[in-house]
Each structure stands twice: as structure tokens, then as C-alpha cells.
Design a protein that fits this description.
With about 400 residues, the protein is an alpha+beta fold. The protein is built from 11 helices and 10 strands.
């Protein structure tokens, strides 16, 4: 892997950095502290500049950047506001991604240009009793002529209150477990689809997260994603890509917390000298820097593999696992560096800490990431043995 960014990637990263830090960062505390203050104006600005079409090819109205560029954008947005970053990240990865990879040509031409133009995307898999174990989801989709009729309940839907296009999963064969899940494209405003009130969350308060209720929601069969029973495959593929974005988001928040800590340590004096000159504090900052840098390298590696068309599920899981746990560590230490000031809302490290806590939960908990890594490790080992087993020992 070449760690030197292309000229286009550097320009996009630098433009995002200026925009995020100059225009969005000053509003992040307001989005966090004011109920219902979502960054809709920021999303409109990002739409105008093409950020909501980054992952969509030009032929469908997008700008067609790859996984590396998309991840860099998420990191820079998260540095300013994790809430804004997750709204954009969800839209570009697990929102548009399933349509781009699994949708029919008609579906791509109908929905991707709309998403590129700013119609927000969302992803709905989890249910009140089906989180990590999605095979037990109970939302059903019954075929009725040219439609499917959906009934059930969903929760933890990021962008759900503002999304126009939802990727939603339901059981077309309730007796088949994971093999009975099917994906659908559902539009907001469809009769029978009710949006719940936004959750009152610990962090990411500028991003809406809602529950959905579906009562006899009719979805045309033409809006089914791929064949019946392929929903689990679609969902897992989407989550593999989404985990790179979460890792980038976690890295952005951790970098912001580290920068604030260094800034504070160079200003605050204790025992007759700057905090930055105390050995124990230097050790803490060094460890924070190590974890931030490693997080970035891991998500860039996974994104690069994805761009190359190579397997990246294990690498995405490793990036997500490491970066999210690193963000928890770094934001915790950032509060420690600030002492009592780190515990009050006047300083942003308090928000960074609250925002970071959910990173280890959504799009697959840390425990699920370890399962993914282990399964991929065993599978790759088995594949590596197959040629020798079938072809004999080389002479």
C-alpha cells in the first residue's frame, strides 16, 4: 500500500478540513446542547459541494470518489462534529452503498441521483429484540401481487427522522432464519410507516436516531433489493463498508481530543511549569498520539483494500475495533489532562467523551468485531491449506 495520498485525495481532505473547522466546528456545541438542533444547514452546504454524492458514480449524478477519500472526509467532519460526520457517513455508505452494489439498473437510476442531490439515506436493520443477532428479526414482508406488505418495528435508525430513502430489512420467510431476510428500498411518507420521536442520547445529540413502526406498509416488488433471502448478505456487505467510516469517525474525534489536550497542556501551569513539561503528562500524550496514528493507518488500509476490490471484512473490523476503543481511551485521557475543566461543557473534550462512547456499539459492537476477525482468520487459513491438500506436496 502506498500511504501517499493522491493529489485529488489531498485536495478533498484539505477542503473538508477548512470547511469543517471554520464553519461547522463553531456550531457543534449548539447542535449538541440544543434539543432538535440538527445540522440541516450544514448538510445543505455539503450537498451543494457534492459531499452527499461522494460514493455515487458520475453516471448516476455523483462525483465517484473511492473508499479512501470517503473515509478521509468522515474523519475531517468528525473532528468538528461527530454528529454531522455520522449523518454524512451513513448516507454515503450504508445508505447509497446497498443500492449501488445490489440494486437493479432501474433502482440505481431512480434513487442514486436523488441521493446525490441531497435526499438523505438511512439504514434500518436493528429491532427492539434483534440487535447483534439480526437472524431473529421479526419484521415481515408478505408478497401480495406486485407489492410486499411490511409489518413490524425497527429502532436505532440514524438519519431516520430526516431520511427520504431507507434501506430496510424484513423477513420474507420467517421460518428460514437469516436466510429468510430480504432488503427493500422504502421511501419516507409511505402510508403505514411511522417515525418515532428522536432518542434522547448521551452523545451524538446533533444526529437524529429514531424508531420506526410499520403497519401494512406496501412496497412495490420493483423496490426489493436483489432476490428474496439475500438480505443478510446485503446487510453484512453494507456494514463492512460502514465500519471503515466508523473507524474514520472515531479517529477524527480522537484527533480533536488530542489536539485540545496538547493546546491546554501548553497553556496550563502547575507546580511552577507548564503541564506539557511534566513527564507523566508527556507519557500520556505520547500514548494518545500512538493510538490516534494507529487508528488512521488501520482505516486507511481497509479503505485501500476495498478500493482495490480485495477482501477487507477483517481489516474493516480491525479498524473499527481498534479505532473506537482508541477513541474511548483518548477522550478519557483528554478529560484527565484538563482536570476539572474537562468535566464542564465550556471545554469540548466533555462532548468528545460522550460522543465517542457509542462508537464501540453501533455498526457492530466490539464483541462482534472480534467474532468477524476470528472467523475471517480461520476461513483464510482454511483457504490457504486447500491448494496443498488437493495438489499434494511440491517436490
Amino acid at each position: 500500500m502506498d500511504f501517499q495520498l493522491t493529489e485529488d485525495q489531498q485536495q478533498l481532505r484539505d477542503m473538508t478540513r477548512r470547511l469543517a473547522r471554520e464553519e461547522f466546528a463553531p456550531l457543534a456545541a449548539q447542535w449538541d446542547q440544543t434539543p432538535g438542533a440538527y445540522p440541516l444547514d450544514a448538510l445543505a452546504k455539503l450537498t451543494e459541494l457534492g459531499f452527499l454524492s461522494l460514493a455515487i458514480p458520475e453516471e448516476y449524478g455523483g462525483v465517484g470518489y473511492g473508499a479512501v477519500a470517503n473515509a478521509l472526509v468522515v474523519e475531517e467532519l468528525a473532528y468538528a462534529s461527530a454528529a454531522l460526520a455520522i449523518m454524512v457517513g451513513v448516507h454515503n455508505t450504508i445508505g447509497a452503498g446497498p443500492i449501488l452494489k445490489f440494486g437493479s439498473e432501474e433502482q440505481k437510476r431512480e434513487f442514486l441521483p436523488r441521493m446525490a442531490a441531497g435526499e438523505l439515506g438511512a439504514f434500518s436493520l436493528s429491532e427492539p429484540d434483534a440487535g447483534s443477532d439480526v437472524a431473529v428479526l421479526t419484521t415481515t414482508a408478505r408478497r401480495d401481487g406486485d407489492d410486499y406488505v411490511l409489518n413490524g418495528a425497527k429502532n436505532w435508525v440514524t438519519n431516520g427522522a430526516h431520511a427520504q430513502i431507507l434501506i430496510l430489512f424484513a423477513k420474507t420467510d420467517p421460518a428460514a432464519g437469516a436466510r429468510g431476510i430480504t432488503g427493500f428500498i422504502v421511501e419516507a411518507g409511505t402510508p403505514g410507516l411511522e417515525i418515532g420521536k428522536p432518542e434522547d442520547k448521551m452523545g451524538l445529540r446533533g444526529s437524529d436516531t429514531v424508531a420506526l413502526s410499520l403497519t401494512d406498509v406496501r412496497v412495490p416488488a420493483a423496490r426489493r433489493l436483489a432476490e428474496e433471502g439475500t438480505g443478510m448478505k446485503i446487510a453484512l456487505a453494507a456494514l463492512d463498508g460502514g465500519r471503515i467510516g466508523v473507524a474514520a469517525q472515531a479517529t477524527g474525534v480522537a484527533q480533536a481530543a488530542l489536539d485540545e489536550s496538547v493546546r491546554y497542556a501548553r497553556q496550563r501551569r502547575t507546580f511552577g511549569k507548564l503541564l506539557a513539561d511534566h513527564g507523566p503528562l508527556q507519557t500520556m500524550l505520547a500514548e494518545m498520539e500512538r493510538r490516534v496514528t494507529a487508528s488512521r493507518l488501520l482505516y486507511l488500509r481497509a479503505a485501500w483494500l476495498r478500493e482495490q476490490g480485495r477482501r477487507f471484512a477483517a481489516e474493516a473490523a480491525m479498524a473499527k475495533l481498534y479505532a473506537t476503543e482508541a477513541a474511548t481511551y483518548v477522550t478519557h485521557r483528554a478529560i484527565q489532562v484538563h482536570g476539572g475543566y474537562g468535566y464542564v461543557k465550556e471545554y469540548p473534550v466533555e462532548r468528545y467523551y460522550r460522543d465517542a462512547r457509542v462508537f464501540e456499539i453501533y455498526e457492530g459492537t466490539s464483541e462482534i468485531q472480534r467474532l468477524v476477525i476470528a472467523r475471517e482468520l480461520v476461513r483464510r487459513a482454511a483457504e490457504a491449506e486447500t491448494p496443498a491438500a488437493s495438489g499434494g506436496v511440491p517436490s
